[in-house]
Write a structure and sequence with these properties.
Chain lengths: 445, 559
């Protein structure tokens, strides 16, 4: 066994277990790795940014991994503590309901783990610029929206300056929304199962390894029920709820802004959905289901959160200290039947709109109108863009802003793709949610 | 249908607090949790004067994940006193806890998480507490933080086995975690929550009369207008085309892949493409469903095994409800060659009234099957002289899940020693043969157990010896390997041996200590398995899981 290297005495007692692992090489640690004081110093001086809904677990784990300077962000003002958080977000109590998550969580962990400094920022990750992100060593996120993930991913990739190794910020991402990877879009269209026992952890080295955008099609969006089904031929209780929520509310209460946290609003949708269901002899509309549909609720439990958060923070510790190899680069987790994980290396794609240099191929129907094509981008697994604007190298096809340009390009929406584009032509798509353009090469099918 | 009172006033505050989990295990699962108290045996005393002993963080983290969703209560047994090293790994201790009872302090801080949960703590050894015969039966599950003295572990596991209380035994050492689940010898689960796609049972090859009538009443497809034609539920389309196929194929259904592909093309050829949409969604759905839905009913081998188990044949007055229902379902199967129909229908393109009508055909058949099973059960109950009747709801749930029920045959916590079961040793050896096997980490933890056991069992002899003592590790590595190979070194190949030595090095690196991340991850997994065992929903681990944090992988083993 290698001999231990001396470390500062005052901390030695408390971090006894951690320091042991950091002071000896293991069978899988790199041959060039230097255990001991240097490694421990690197750990303590690493400034870490944590973001998102797995926040309580991630904060606790980072603090007990020996990190001293932790920032938290994106548990926004709108995202205050709700009673339904208490079944898993263990830093919050009944008395904290209504307070901003980041502040309560930071104060709690600082008080419990002496010597750690936690700086909360109540707001959105999109509020911050490159200068802000540049100060961190590693970014770890447990964001619950794909949009926020894609934003941070493209921002960190955009920051990489090959001349400056410090500009490369490893991104460690965890999620529990339970999308099975390796299913193609068609297969899971009919299989909308949010089991609450699933999740994934991944490590992204911006520009060097497969990024979130490369893996986008593994996380297909929930396909929307066609509007005509909701409007005219409901069959499921969920269709009746969507009708009450999307159509009846607009007709009967268009002056009220729908608030999914307002009990009166939910009750109205529930009762309206129930009436419609009775009319069509459809059974099964319940209050719980109504809430689930209108708030897009994903089941969540403490144990799955703990597994995913801990696997991500463990990767952060390994990256910060090099004490063991980090995950390359994806671990999926499913716990309904025993304990199942699958670790694999997701591919870096040459046609990734963010980290690749080729336009991504997309098959389209040449008879489709531009307007329908734009709508379809929201659901296409490889795009998932909700408010796209687009142009070719020569001309603007459709531009949402400024209003004059919108008006000018609006007539294109009713034209067929074949009237606007050549087969195989490349288009650039922008979306207000992202800072970069997405390049697609459209092939007529 | 009037809205229920609960709906008018909105959900209760408890329903709101637990909303995200009630969607996973429903009120019945929640009730089972609230009726349960969990015992955590978090250490078995110090490892000599020079060591801080087991920190037991994985167990504490598991309790956190059980307190949050609202188990009835928990008990922590731990004679240890809080040291500085505990503060660096255990989140449920604070500076003011130093020098106090670790059981009391952890219990106090865990209780803060959920006022609905009762917490109890004992700062003494479990051996002492087991002297009270009423102590263990108060609990529905035992979690033990390893390594622990072998004699303690054996007594606990044996007592729990007699009482049919499940046990989880955990190791969390450095970057490695492993745990095993000991279930009662027979552990039935009805609500296994299989993937909804795999549960679809539509009986297209053998439609019962009402379903056949629904197809017949469709009339002529050709004479339909485009709107009607595009809204015939795909299920009825398939049934209609199957009839036609049968007529042109000497009464046979498409049976192999080639025929199914041909049948699929036949369905496709009937779709209208000259309409405005250039195709029909219901036909697309039908085409996509051919391979999956056109297959004869076959009884899964796991269900056949359950039907063949003696418990299913030799019913007594005291048989568990599960076996009475299983036996009635076996009678149903023997009569009809199918299981009761689950009765659910996937969503499909159709007009509302047509879909609801078709759904009712399935529901009615399912209800009818439940009635038949219930009649058998009532007869059995009366023959056996049972006075408490099985609830209708239980029968219904069982019938709906009949194709996916499971009986786990519990196994003891695996331990490698001279008197280990030959089957266990064989399972471990074959686990080791897999490339990059994680069974090596399981073995390293077995050696750690042996080292700790020796230090704890002979405190006078070994006082001052570290958990990382070279001599002890070498001696116990050899002893465990001898047991494992039954003295034949060739039973394990070179690369497996290298794997074991790597695992030993990684485990020794931590000198028995925990890393919080890995303990927390193990605590998450252990809590998840506890939830499955307590709710009797989903499928629990059978029986050992190893997580390797160095390589970010896990494996399951049946040891």
């Amino acid at each position: 066994m290698a001999t231990s290297v001396a470390v500062p005495l005052n901390e030695k007692g408390r971090w006894n277990h951690l320091y042991k692992v950091l002071s000896k090489p293991g069978p899988f640690s790199d041959e060039d790795w230097v255990p001991g004081e240097e490694t421990i110093n690197a750990l303590e001086s690493s400034k870490i940014l944590g973001a998102g809904g797995l926040g309580c677990e991630i904060l606790k784990n980072l603090a007990l991994s020996g990190f001293k300077d932790i920032h938290v962000i994106d548990m926004g003002i709108a995202d205050t503590i709700d009673i339904s958080n208490l079944n898993r977000q263990f830093l919050f109590r009944q008395a904290d309901i209504g307070k901003p998550k980041a502040e309560v969580a930071a104060a709690f962990v600082e008080k419990r783990v002496k010597g750690v400094k936690i700086t909360p920022y109540v707001g959105k990750i999109q509020d911050k610029d490159e200068d802000y992100y540049m100060q961190f060593k590693i970014v770890i996120c447990g964001l619950d929206s794909i949009e926020a993930r894609r934003w941070i991913n493209s921002t960190l990739i955009g920051m990489v300056d090959l001349e400056n190794p410090e500009s490369l910020k490893p991104l460690v991402d965890g999620g529990t929304e339970g999308r099975p990877p390796h299913s193609n879009y068609l297969n899971i269209q009919k299989l909308i199962v949010y089991t609450g026992f699933k999740g994934q952890a991944r490590v992204i080295l911006p520009t060097l390894s497969s990024c979130i955008e490369c893996q986008l099609d593994m996380h297909a969006p929930r396909p929307a029920v066609p509007l005509c089904t909701i409007a005219t031929i409901p069959r499921q209780p969920q269709h009746c709820i969507e009708w009450a929520h999307q159509i009846a509310w607009q007709e009967k209460r268009k002056d009220d802004t729908f608030d999914s946290d307002d009990m009166e609003h939910i009750s109205w949708v529930y009762n309206t959905a129930l009436e419609r269901a009775q009319q069509f002899h459809i059974h099964g509309v319940t209050f719980q289901m109504t809430q689930g549909v209108v708030k897009n609720i994903i089941p969540a439990i403490a144990s799955t959160n703990a597994v995913i958060a801990a696997s991500t923070t463990s990767e952060v510790l390994k990256i910060a200290t090099s004490c063991n190899p980090y995950l390359e680069n994806y671990m999926m987790y499913a716990g309904e039947e025993g304990v199942y994980t699958y670790t694999f290396e997701a591919e870096k794609k040459a046609d990734c709109p963010v980290c690749g240099n080729l336009a991504r191929n997309m098959d389209v129907d040449p008879n489709m109108t531009l307007g329908d094509f734009i709508d379809s981008l929201g659901e296409k697994a490889e795009a998932q863009l909700k408010k796209p604007s687009m142009r070719t190298e020569e001309k603007t096809l459709y531009q949402r802003f400024p209003p004059q340009l919108e008006e000018h390009t609006r007539p294109n929406l009713v034209l067929k793709l074949s009237e606007l584009l050549e087969n195989g032509q490349e288009i650039a798509v922008s979306d207000p949610a992202y800072t970069i353009d997405f390049r697609f090469r459209l092939h007529f099918r | 249908m009037a809205p229920s009172p609960a709906a008018l006033s909105g959900p209760t505050s408890k329903e709101r607090k637990y909303d995200r989990q009630l969607r996973l295990w429903a009120a019945t699962g929640q009730q089972a949790l609230e009726d349960a108290r969990v015992l955590l045996v978090n250490s078995d005393g110090p490892l000599g004067s020079s060591s801080t002993g087991v920190t037991g963080v994985a167990g504490v983290e598991a309790l956190k994940n059980l307190v949050l969703p609202g188990i009835g209560g928990f008990t922590i047994v731990d004679p240890a006193i809080v040291t500085e090293a505990d503060l660096g790994v255990n989140f449920f201790l604070e500076e003011a806890s130093l020098g106090k009872s670790r059981a009391d302090e952890t219990c106090r801080l865990l209780r803060e998480l959920n006022p609905d949960v009762q917490g109890y703590s004992y700062s003494k050894s479990i051996t002492e507490l087991l002297g009270d015969a009423e102590f263990l039966p108060r609990h529905k599950l035992v979690i033990i933080s390893g390594p622990t003295k072998r004699s303690t572990l054996e007594t606990l596991c044996e007592t729990a086995q007699k009482l049919e209380i499940p046990v989880l035994y955990i190791h969390s050492v450095g970057f490695c975690a492993t745990f095993s689940l000991q279930l009662p010898s027979e552990f039935p689960i009805v609500e296994t929550h299989p993937d909804p796609e795999s549960t679809q049972d539509l009986r297209l090859l053998h439609p019962w009369p009402e379903l056949a009538n629904a197809v017949a009443s469709l009339g002529n497809l050709e004479s339909m207008d485009d709107h009607q034609h595009g809204h015939v539920p795909y299920l009825l389309l398939l049934l209609r085309f199957l009839e036609q196929w049968k007529q042109s194929h000497e009464g046979n259904m498409p049976s192999n892949y080639k025929e199914k592909t041909e049948f699929r093309e036949f369905v496709r050829s009937n779709a209208r493409t000259e309409n405005a949409e250039g195709g029909e969604e219901n036909f697309d759905e039908a085409i996509a469903a051919v391979v999956k839905t056109i297959s004869p009913f076959s009884l899964r081998s796991s269900i056949r095994e359950i039907f063949e188990m003696p418990q299913c044949h030799q019913l007594t007055t005291t048989s568990a409800d599960f076996w009475i229902i299983a036996s009635a379902i076996r009678t149903f199967y023997n009569t009809h060659n199918v299981l009761p129909l689950p009765g659910s229908l996937p969503d499909m393109k159709a007009k509302s009234a047509d879909y609801v009508a078709l759904q009712n055909v399935y529901k009615k058949k399912a209800r009818h099957d439940v009635e038949e099973v219930t009649a058998t059960i009532r007869q059995l109950e009366s023959d056996l002289g049972r006075t408490t009747l099985i609830l209708d709801r239980e029968v219904e749930v069982f019938c709906k899940n009949a194709a996916h029920i499971k009986v786990v045959r519990g196994r003891a916590i695996p331990q490698i020693s001279n008197n280990s079961d030959a089957a266990l040793l064989k399972a471990v050896r074959s686990g080791l043969q897999m490339p990059e096997s994680l069974a090596s980490l399981f073995i390293a933890c077995q050696i750690l157990d042996a080292v700790v056991d020796e230090i704890q069992s002979n405190p006078a002899l070994h006082d001052g010896r570290s958990v990382d003592d070279d001599g002890l590790w070498i001696a116990h590595r050899d002893r465990i390997l001898t047991s494992l190979t039954l003295g034949d070194p060739a039973a394990i190949d070179e690369s497996a041996l290298e794997g074991i030595d790597d695992a030993i090095q990684e485990v020794r690196r931590a000198e028995g200590g925990e890393l919080h991340n890995i303990a927390s991850l193990a605590g998450g997994l252990v809590a998840q398995e506890s939830l499955k065992v307590l709710t009797r929903q989903y499928v629990p681990l059978d029986n050992t899981c190893v997580f390797d944090g160095a390589r970010s992988r896990s494996e399951m083993y049946r040891f």
